[in-house]
């Protein structure tokens, strides 16, 4: 459904009226397209404190000066005390204004040091700084914090955050572990070439966009959806040169059937299928509870276990599950859905270290906010409008925004990103 308000605020009378009334001022976001693979303008590197990061190794094309930067990378990983924290202000204060529309600010921080509470305090301060700047900066610009120890491990993450692909990701704190040994992909335009990706619930909506984006990145895609939606799944698969699999993921043997359909194995598993059956708890029959928990959580646990233990998910593999901001903040009428999506967060945090150590597979989640799909088009007008505007970018996201985030997590160079829950919500006001 078109966002008419966004179109209206883009006109001169619309801008005048909405400013006078103090209404939100969404800016059209500059998203990735083949015609616009990168943001126009330089990438400025600033430093606060004494950094030990070797950013040259990340291949990011950074400059020490840029007049109207499209992106600013502030390396604050060496900030260890409150005095040096002032350098964050000193570095960004003069340049924030000049960052272009849909520009990016990425702050680099260090993991919190449990043996140094001064370092931990100021590194945590960067989180509050990042989230506050994200809320005030406007004009479609985003601000994110990456905690890291080795810049080489963060190349895919920084390229994503500094690009138009992360248009709807703001106010996030992402931790990147130590360097993973994966060699860079032979063709950076098709990083998933030679890999197989299975996306559940991919006949439409966000899942369809995920399949499309992974195929763009070179993956052979398997489009899974319920047998009733098999025709749509086949249409998507044909368009992307992939295959369709009609399967209800709540079937007790779904994992085995996926394994049987993929005798050569699988590299990327995207748990996207999900349903809502909203009711307040007082009015919620047991069936509404169990169907949501079964599709959104139990089947994710079952198929993940089956594909990991059977070894069908190859080393270097990626699991990306779908949470929701309702699972982080809670939502009235969604005790079942909120429980199922919070369960995904628990699954990711617990399984990620073990899956990497034992199977060489990373496990992360995307947590979408308000995304323009059939699901959200069905929400009554006023609630829908509130959902769309209650975020720092004052608009809904698109399925492509979730898809690009998934593609970054699925990237062969993202092996050091593990156990993360990344919100794709335009920095929604709901939840932390
Ligand atoms: N749209 C949003 O704003 C939003 C926000 C937060 C989270 N999410 C999550 O993103 C995911 C995709 O959402 P969407 O808006 O594209 O939904 P959608 O309803 O448009 O698509 C979901 C797809 O999953 C399939 N599916 C449902 N049950 C299945 C089953 N048992 N087996 C196989 N396939 C099944 C459906 O047939 C459908 O094609 C869901 O997990 C949803 O909870 C969406």
Helix/sheet category? alpha/beta
State which percent range the strand residues make up.
Answer: 15-25%
Give a count of the beta strands, DSSP E runs of length 2 or more. 12
Task: Please tell me how large the radius of gyration is.
Answer: 21 Å
Number of helical elements = 14
Distance between the termini: 28 Å
Name of the CATH superfamily of the largest domain: NAD(P)-binding Rossmann-like Domain
Spans of at least 5 consecutive residues with low confidence:
none
CATH class of the largest domain: Alpha Beta
User: Can you list the strand order of the major beta sheet?
Assistant: 8-7-6-9-10-11-12
Q: Which molecules other than protein and nucleic acid are bound?
A: nicotinamide-adenine-dinucleotide
As for the number of domains, it is 2
Based on Cα principal axes, name the global outline: globular
The description of the largest β-sheet is: 7 strands, parallel
CATH architecture of the largest domain: 3-Layer(aba) Sandwich
Average residue-wise pLDDT: 95
Write the layout of secondary structure elements.
Blueprint: H1 4-9, H2 12-20, E1 43-49, E2 71-78, H3 82-92, E3 104-109, H4 117-136, E4 142-147, H5 155-161, E5 173-175, E6 196-200, H6 205-216, E7 220-225, H7 230-240, E8 243-246, H8 254-261, E9 266-271, H9 286-309, E10 313-322, H10 325-329, H11 335-359, E11 362-368, H12 374-377, H13 381-389, H14 399-410, E12 421-424
């Amino acid at each position: 459904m078109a966002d008419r308000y966004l179109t209206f605020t883009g006109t001169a009378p619309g801008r005048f009226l909405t400013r006078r009334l103090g209404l939100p001022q969404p800016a059209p976001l500059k998203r990735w397209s083949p015609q616009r693979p990168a943001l126009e303008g330089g990438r400025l590197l600033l430093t606060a404190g004494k950094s030990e990061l070797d950013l040259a190794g990340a291949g990011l094309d950074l400059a020490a000066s840029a007049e109207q930067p499209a992106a600013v990378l502030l390396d604050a990983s060496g900030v260890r005390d409150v005095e040096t924290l002032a350098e964050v202000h000193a570095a960004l204060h003069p340049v924030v204004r000049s960052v272009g529309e849909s520009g990016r600010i990425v702050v680099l921080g260090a993991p919190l040091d449990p043996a140094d509470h001064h370092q931990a305090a100021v590194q945590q301060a960067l989180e509050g700084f990042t989230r506050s700047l994200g809320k005030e900066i406007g004009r479609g610009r985003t601000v994110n914090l990456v905690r890291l120890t080795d810049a080489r491990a963060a190349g895919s993450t920084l390229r994503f955050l500094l690009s138009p692909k992360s248009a709807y990701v703001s106010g996030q704190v992402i931790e990147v572990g130590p360097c993973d040994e994966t060699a860079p992909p032979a063709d950076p335009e098709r990083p998933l070439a030679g890999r197989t990706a299975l996306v559940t619930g991919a006949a439409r909506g966000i899942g369809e966009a995920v399949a499309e984006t992974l195929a763009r990145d070179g993956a052979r895609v398997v489009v899974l959806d319920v047998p009733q939606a098999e025709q749509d799944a086949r249409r998507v698969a044909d368009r992307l040169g992939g295959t369709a699999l009609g399967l209800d993921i709540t079937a007790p043997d779904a994992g085995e059937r996926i394994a049987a359909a993929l005798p050569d194995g699988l590299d990327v598993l995207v748990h996207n299928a999900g349903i809502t059956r909203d009711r307040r708890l007082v009015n919620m029959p047991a069936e509404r509870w169990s169907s949501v928990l079964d599709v959104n959580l139990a089947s994710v646990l079952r198929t993940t276990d089956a594909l990991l233990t059977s070894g069908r998910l190859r080393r270097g593999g990626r699991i990306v599950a779908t949470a929701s901001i309702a699972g982080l903040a809670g939502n009235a009428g969604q005790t079942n859905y909120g429980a199922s999506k919070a369960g995904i967060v628990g699954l990711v945090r617990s399984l990620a270290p073990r899956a990497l150590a034992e199977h060489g597979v990373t496990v992360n989640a995307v947590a979408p906010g308000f995304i323009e799909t059939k699901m959200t088009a069905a929400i009554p007008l006023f609630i829908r409008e509130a959902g769309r505007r209650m975020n720092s970018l004052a608009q809904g996201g698109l399925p492509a925004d979730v898809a690009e985030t998934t593609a970054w997590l699925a990237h062969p160079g993202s092996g050091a990103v593990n156990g993360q829950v990344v919100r794709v919500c335009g920095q929604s006001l709901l939840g932390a």
